[in-house]
């Protein structure tokens, strides 16, 4: 199957990361892969064995430059047996940009062209070696930032999520077949109403679709990690808290209010999960245009972050009023870090604050500590990790990580909702069947059985060269 100009070309590219290294791998694939490779590697036999490696010296194709290019191990993959499904070869040469770049240049002189980003995976999709979901999982595997994320991507590469979509398609087709039978009977003058079995099966399918949709939040954390926003009034100690958490002076700390004008993001890892801590501008009424822009970004981050920590300065005499405002305007899942307890010599501040927190019902979501002394930090990290453990701690199961898959499931759910409404209203079987067929079309789009070129471009342009 070819859908774009150039799909029939022989392509080549560096498959390993550029730069210094012990070994570099150059990949070539297409109808002329062996012929182009033999021009550079004359030691290859006329009919090499598939999946066998051959060792020899690479020679310059045109003979103008230094004749010997490098010693190499060249592995041959016959048509229909390679990753791309085409005749392919891989050159394992000494690492470094000079040698690998020279091999690519020689292959181009021999008749190949440089591959586009993701074109090897794209050809595997075109040749039915993988479906579109599996193609996306390869990029997820490359970009995975945690062991759980890579394990999930590998399961999807093996077809776990694809099978879920195929199961949904089977159920939709079964429901459609029952309705088609009703339509056929009605043409013979026999009126059939949708059975209870049909309604139950459609309800069960919708439940399964929604359960799969519900994994997207977990999948997003697996893919991107967690974003934690530190918000509060100026000089509450947000920057000091950030520095203490990441154990580095990443944010400027001064006694002057409004020092932080923009978002400062630093990534750490908690139990293998990437966590990005964001120091924000202090929230207060301001006439300074630059500071106002920073405050607007703080408020947006407060809304968009996965986890919000409101930092309250207990040494500030107006902390009660500030707390009341943050509780009133904030999210219900926000946590509170009461800072500068090291200045509380008598312990009265903490006791007073606890009584105040009981009034708002947020004591269970509060941590007392000192950014300067480092106290309370572990408790705060545990608070951040708790929802992560709850979301990621579910053993096994298929997890949706891509927005395209989530959006597709939403469309299927919408089609099922319309179909169920029609079934309950004893609507015409033709109308119900139409909605179910819309769901089937969406499954085909997810798997790549039918697709738009814009979708293909959107997916594969994110890949690196050589993959």
Describe the structure.
- With 467 residues, the protein is an alpha/beta fold.
- The chain has 3 domains: 121 residues, Gyrase A, domain 2 (2-Layer Sandwich); 130 residues, Four Helix Bundle (Hemerythrin (Met), subunit A) (Up-down Bundle); 146 residues, Rossmann fold.
- The chain is 47% helix and 16% strand.
- The protein contains 16 helices and 12 strands.
- The strands form 2 sheets. It has a 6-stranded mixed β-sheet with strand order 3-4-5-2-1-6, with helices on one face. Strands 8-9-7-10-11-12 form a 6-stranded mixed β-sheet, sandwiched between helices.
- A hairpin with an 8-residue loop joins strand 3 and strand 4.
- Helix 1 crosses helix 2, helix 6 runs antiparallel to helix 15 and helix 7 runs antiparallel to helix 14.
- About 1% of the residues have low confidence.
């Amino acid at each position: 199957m070819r859908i774009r100009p150039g799909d029939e070309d022989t392509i080549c590219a560096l498959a390993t990361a550029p730069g210094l290294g012990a070994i570099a791998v150059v990949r070539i694939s297409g109808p002329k892969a062996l012929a182009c490779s033999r021009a550079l590697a004359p030691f290859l036999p006329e009919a090499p064995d598939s999946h066998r490696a051959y060792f020899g010296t690479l020679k310059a194709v045109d003979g103008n430059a230094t004749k010997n290019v490098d010693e190499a191990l060249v592995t041959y993959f016959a048509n229909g047996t390679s990753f791309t499904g085409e005749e392919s070869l891989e050159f394992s040469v000494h690492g470094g940009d000079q040698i690998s770049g020279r091999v690519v240049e020689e292959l181009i002189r021999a008749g190949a062209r440089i591959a586009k980003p993701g074109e090897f995976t794209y050809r595997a999709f075109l040749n039915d070696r993988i479906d579109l979901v599996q193609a996306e999982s390869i990029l997820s595997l490359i970009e995975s930032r945690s062991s759980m994320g890579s394990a999930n991507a590998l399961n999807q590469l093996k077809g776990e999520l694809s099978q879920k979509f195929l199961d949904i398609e089977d159920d939709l087709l079964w429901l459609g077949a029952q309705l088609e039978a009703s339509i056929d009977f009605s043409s013979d003058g026999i009126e059939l109403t949708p059975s209870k079995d049909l309604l139950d099966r459609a309800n069960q399918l919708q439940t399964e679709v929604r359960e799969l949709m519900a994994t997207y939040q977990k999948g997003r954390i697996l893919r991107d990690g967690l974003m934690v926003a530190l918000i509060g009034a100026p000089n509450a100690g947000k920057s000091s808290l950030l520095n203490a958490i990441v154990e580095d002076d990443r944010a400027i700390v001064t006694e002057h209010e409004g020092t932080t004008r923009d978002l400062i993001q630093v990534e750490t890892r908690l139990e293998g999960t990437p966590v990005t801590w964001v120091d924000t501008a202090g929230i207060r009424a301001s006439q300074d245009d630059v500071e106002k822009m920073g405050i607007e970004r703080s408020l947006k981050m407060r809304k968009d972050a996965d986890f919000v920590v409101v930092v309250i300065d207990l040494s500030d005499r107006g902390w009660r009023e500030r707390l009341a405002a943050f509780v009133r305007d904030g999210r219900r899942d926000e946590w509170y870090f009461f800072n500068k307890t090291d200045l509380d010599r008598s312990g009265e501040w903490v006791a007073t604050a606890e009584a105040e927190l009981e009034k708002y019902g947020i004591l269970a979501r509060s941590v007392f500590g000192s950014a300067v002394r480092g106290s309370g930090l572990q408790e705060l990290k545990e608070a951040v990790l708790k929802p992560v453990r709850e979301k990621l701690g579910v053993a096994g199961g298929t997890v949706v990580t891509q927005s395209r898959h989530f959006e597709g499931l939403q469309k299927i759910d919408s089609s099922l909702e319309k179909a169920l409404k029609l079934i309950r209203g004893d609507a015409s079987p033709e109308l119900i069947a139409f909605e179910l067929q819309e769901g089937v079309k969406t499954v085909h789009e997810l798997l790549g059985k039918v697709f738009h070129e814009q979708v293909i471009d959107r997916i594969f342009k994110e890949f690196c060269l050589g993959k």
